[in-house]
Every structure is written in structure tokens, then in C-alpha cells.
Amino acid sequence: MDSGTHLVFGLGLGGLALTDPAIASHPYGPVAVLIGTIIGSQAPDADTLLRFKSNADYIRNHRGLSHSFPALIGWTALITLVLSLIFRGVPWLHLGAWVLLAVVVHVATDLFNSYGTQALRPISSKWVAWNIIHIFDPAIFLAHVAAILLWMSGWAAPTAIFPTLYGLLVLYYGWRTLVHRRLSARLPAKDPERREGDVYTLLPTLSLNRWNVVKKTADGHYGVGEWENGKLVWLERTRCDRHPAVEASKSNKDVQAFLNVTPFPCGHVKAQPWGYEVRWIDIRYRHRRQYPFVAVALMDSSYVPFQSYVGWLSDDRLEKRLRMNTY
Question: Given this model, what pLDDT does residue 23 score?
Fold first, then answer.
């Protein structure tokens, strides 16, 4: 999820912790737990600091080890230890349990969107993305905001507000999961262009009724479309290039970082007076007829890269950046 949603989850879990008598009855318990759940709800995204090193390092590692099984324990232990030293007397087992819940909720909610995480590390480095909830879900965010405002206004007790909130959210996640499974099963039959070996992926959008669709064909090409109200519409078909420059670009560190995180990479080659421009796009993120998540490698006529970039950019900004770094 986005940082704002993780923040309201942290606030909401701090309110839910007031149902714990050991926390609610201690003078500093509610404050300690609220700080702990807020920090715990943000901690796995501390790998954002890798941006200061390079985009490639950030993209390669974001939602990787910081979201893994060992990290869940590490973040919880570190946050609980610091807070126990500051708020002495607060039952550390109860404090730690709520911090752990905040960290686990962060990782669990990230699994539901399209980017996913490497939550199974060190057992497996596979990316797990369930493609059920958009990275920003208005219903989840606004439900939290409404609950927090009710809490702050004193209109209702947090012990009533937050159990109700999270009970409804569990039902919401369950409902979205069932809808995703049902539509995924129906999708192939709705495609008149379906061929043997085609694989379909349903991706969430901000709208509850509209889903993005990616079709990967047996020869490795893609179709990009939308599913809305029982209708499938193809918006674009993307043919990935097979060219020595595409293969050569895979040795570039920026391209490697890109290929490490996307299940839908597609490389395109453009001949230039100085050699070749290879642009890799992530089919998942089509926006306004563009693919903003890219890796670009510029190489000479011998396929030796001399400039590259990976990250999120519009076409105009990307062209300006590459020109600046090339000349």
C-alpha cells in the first residue's frame, strides 16, 4: 500500500490496542502502543533510504529483505526494545504484540497489490503479488479516516470503533478476493481472440468495477486491456523485440534491477546514429498510453552500454534525463 494508507493503519491499530486491558490501564500504555504501531506500520519501508544510493539499488531491494520473515521479528524487537526503555513499566509482551501486528499488517497488505513483496525470504526469493487491492484503495483509506475522526471527536469509544472497522475490512478483503477469483476464472472465455497458451492476469484499479487485464501470449507478446461490467476491451497489443541489443542490455545493472521485480517485462529497440536505445517497460503500469516504469540502456553499435536509467518517469522527463546524461 502507499505510505498514507500504512500511516492510517498504524493509527487505527493504536486505537484497536485500547481493547487490551494491559495497555489501556497503564498511564503510558496507549501512548507507547500508538507510537509503536505507527512506527511499525512504516518500518518495512525503511529500504526507501536506498534511493540515496541509486535507483537500481532501491528497486532491486524495495519490499525485499525488509519485508521478509526475519525482518518481521527484527523490526518488532528493535521498536519494542526502544519503547520499553522510554516507557518503563508498560508490559513489553503486550507492547511487542501490537508492534508485531502493525509490522505484519504492513507486509500482508502489500501482498494484496500488484507490486507485491518478497515476504517468503529467505525460504524463497519469489515475488508474491496477489493483484487484489490497488496500491491506494479509497475505501480502505477513507474508512480509517472516518474511524480516526470519530475517535478524536469522542463521538464513540475506540473499543467500539476499531473492532468494527477491522471486522468490516476483513470482510472487504475477503469480498475483493472472491471477486478477483471469480472474474479471473471467467476472463479467458470472454476473449474472442484467445489462443492456446495465453495467460491472463487481472490487475486492480482505483475503481471497484474496473480491472486492468494483461494477456501474455505463448510467443511472449502482450495484450493490455480493461474489464468493466462484464466486458473485456483490448486497448493495446505490445510486441516485444527480439534483437541482440535486447539480450546485451540484460547485463546492465539498471536493467537487471528492473527484470528482478517485474513479471511482465517487454524490451523495445530503437536504432540511433550512435548505436541502440533499448527500453524495457513493465506492462502492469500502463497509464495514459504510456508505461512510466522503465529501464533504458543506451549502447554503441557493438552493444556496449554507456548510459542507463531505471525508475518511474514520463516519456518527456525520460528523454530529457537521458539527453542530459549522454551529452
Answer: 97
**Are the CB atoms for 31 and 39 separated by under 8 Å?**
no
Residue type, 228: E
Q: What is the pLDDT of residue 314?
A: 62
CA-CA distance, 35 to 68, in Å (whole number)? 22
First to last CA, the chain: 38
210-216 β-sheet, strand order: 199-204, 210-216, 222-228, 231-238
Q: How many residues does the chain have?
A: 327
Taking the C-alpha atoms of residue 64 and residue 45, their distance in angstroms, rounded to an integer, is 10
pLDDT of residue 320: 57
* Segment 140-151, tens digit of pLDDT: 999 999 999 999
204-234 pLDDT, tens per residue? 999 999 999 999 988 878 999 999 988 999 9
